[in-house]
Specification:
Blueprint lengths: L24 E5 L10 E7 L5 E5 L4 E4 L27 E6 L8 H4 L4 E6 L10 H8 L5 E6 L18 H21 L4 E7 L5 H4 L4 E3 L12 E6 L53 H5 L4 H10 L2
Parallel strand pairs: 5-6, 5-7, 7-8
Antiparallel strand pairs: 1-2, 2-3, 3-4, 8-10, 9-10
Amino acid sequence: MSNNKAPNRLSEDSLICPYCWHEHIESDVFTSPINRMNVFDVEWWCNNCGLSFTFDAIASGWRFTSRAYDTPQLNLGFQLTNPTEAGVMSKKVILHLCADTGSDTQPYQDDPNYEVVLVGSRVGVENFSFKRWQQWHGVDWKVHGIIANPVCLEFSVARSNGKARNPDEGMFLVKECQRIIQEAKDDGGLKFWVIENPAHGVLHEYIGEPTFKYEPWHYGSPWTKQTALWGDFNMPMPLYDKWEDVPKISELYIRPGRPKPSLAFMHKSAYGLIPEFHTLPQPESDMEFRSLCSQKFAKAFYEANK
C-alpha cells in the first residue's frame, strides 16, 4: 500500500461531496484495477448522490471515479483544469451559474488563464458555495466574473396567454444567483457579474430594468434572440446596426411573415448549419439548442471583460 495521503484540504471526517455538497461521506481502500498499481489510496463516495471520487497520488489531484451507484462520470467544473498546478499558478475564476451547456463562457473555457466553474441543474445553485470549492481544491483564487443564466421558462409570456408561467418560482434561482454574486463581492476581486434572460420576459418586473439589451445579429450571428442583461460589466460594442449588412446563412429557417430567422423557431437540426456552434457539444433537444448563446457575442463579451 502506498503511503500517499489525501491533502489536508479537508479532513476525511469533514469531507464534503463536490457534487451535491452532502456531508455524509463514506470511504474504502482499494487498488486501481486499471494498472494494478496503488495509484488511488482511498475512495470516498457520497451516500446522498452516489458520486465516488479519489485522490490521484501521481497527479496530485482529485478525480471522480463514478464507481458507486453507477453514477455517470462527471466534469462539471469542480475539477481543476490543471490540477498539478494548483497552488503554483493562480487562475482567474469564472462562475457560470445555471449552466447546463456552458455556451456563454466557452471563450473563457478556451483560455488557460481561466478556471470556469459550471454550476448546472445537476448540482443546483442553491447547493453551491465558492468557499467550499476553494477548500476542496486548496486554493485561494478569487472570483473574477460571474455569468448567470437562471431558467427563463417561468418568466416567459410565450404560449401562456400573455402571462408569465410562474415567476415567483423562477425567482428562487435568481435569488440564489444573487446570493453567490454578493458572496463574491464580499470576498473581493469580482470584476464583473451579469444575469441573462430573454428581453421579452417579465424578470424586469422583479429586479428592475436591464442594463443592456442586444440581438445576436448585432455581433454577426444572423438570427434574432433579443436578450436582456443585468449587472456590472463592460458591454461590447455592436459590430452591426443594420440587418442588411450582416452576413447571412441562407439555409436558416424564417417563419412566414417574419423578416429574419429566429432561434426560438429553429430545431436542433439547424446546429449543423451554424459553424460558430460547432465548437460546442451538439444539443440533444430543441430547447437546449435554442438556449445557446451566440458565440460571436460570447467572444466579444470575453474580450471586453478579461
